[in-house]
Amino acid sequence: MEEKLEVLDAQSRHIGRKCPRCEQEFAAGDEVVECPRCHLVHHADCWKENGGCARRGCPQVAKTVVGERRAGDGPPPPIDPKHLMIAVGVIIALIIVTIIWPKPSDPAAGRIKITVLVEASFEEQKQLNQIIGDFNSTNDEIYIELQTSSLSVIENQLFVRMAAGEAPDIFSLPYDRFERIQEELGAMYPLGDATNRFYGVQHPSQLRVLSIFVHTKHPDAAVAVLRHLLQEMPRRDLTELKEQAHIIDPERMMDIDTFLSLPY
């Protein structure tokens, strides 16, 4: 037995009676369904929501779609296969583009990269950029990456990066910190010969030491870069500055000319 949809008019005998599911009175214009078994009348929506008759014990279940479904009622319509294929094609295209899209070019272009971290003023940074830019444009084997920082930040950066084994290949430190870090961490690559070990070279214009990280992956390239920088960076006579500050050269710091005279 299948149910039928009815729209109540003002003269319907069901007006004023209550729907067994929602217990609301029927009114003119309501869509209703009469149970074909027990003849109990329901709101059409209540009939659909309940899946059939709401009277206890009545076995009647909804067998047909009663009236037109409201927007959003029931499962969504099936997706057009053409639209589905287009969506799949777009996803595949995006995956392919992600894989083959050219990555940003590596400025080192296959060369050995040596990272240099130093404290530098704006003017000193401009000079270093010029020196390093000229080097990178002519050297086919080594590429220098310059990183600059302030005095208040550079030491914290170094400690963190040294602990991670990822310190820059070349870095600068003030005299006292150079000695302490070497004593506590042994973080500097040895320079000189077996009988005269040094762990850094005098900075050309500051009371600082330039050192090579002991765990650099490319010690020969790092030495070559350090030599180049010391040859090209402007020098300043630091004698008076040291006397005024009562500073003595660290024991394991080599002067520039001695370092440049070594047969590397």
Task: Give a brief outline of the structure.
Helix content is 36%, strand content 17%. The protein has 264 residues and is of the alpha/beta class. The strands form 3 sheets. A 6-stranded mixed beta sheet has the order 5-4-6-10-9-11. A 3-stranded antiparallel beta sheet has the order 1-2-3.
Provide an overview of this structure:
- With 264 residues, the chain is α/β, with parallel strands linked by helices.
- It has two domains: 1-71, Wheat Germ Agglutinin (Isolectin 2), domain 1 (2-Layer Sandwich), CATH 3.30.60; 112-261, D-Maltodextrin-Binding Protein, domain 2.
- Helix content is 36%, strand content 17%.
- It contains eight helices and eleven strands.
- A six-stranded mixed β-sheet has the order 5-4-6-10-9-11. The protein has a three-stranded antiparallel β-sheet with strand order 1-2-3. It has a two-stranded antiparallel sheet with strand order 7-8.
- It is rod-shaped.
- Mean pLDDT is 84; it is low at 65-75.
Instruction: Please name the CATH topology of the largest domain.
Output: D-Maltodextrin-Binding Protein, domain 2
Oligomer: single chain
Topology as H/E string? EEEHHEHEHEHEEEEHHEH
Give the N-to-C terminal Cα separation: 102 Å
The CATH top-level class label of the largest domain: Alpha Beta
Uncertain regions spanning at least 5 consecutive residues: 65-75
CATH homologous superfamily identity of the largest domain: Periplasmic binding protein-like II
CATH-scheme architecture of the largest domain: 3-Layer(aba) Sandwich
Biggest beta sheet summary:
6 strands, mixed
Proportion of residues in extended strands = 15-25%
Number of domains: 2
**Judging from the principal axes of the Cα atoms, what is the shape?**
rod-shaped
| SS elements, strand count | 11
Secondary structural class: alpha/beta
Radius of gyration: 42 Å
Widest β-sheet, arrangement of strands: 5-4-6-10-9-11
Helix content: 25-40%
- Average pLDDT, all residues: 84
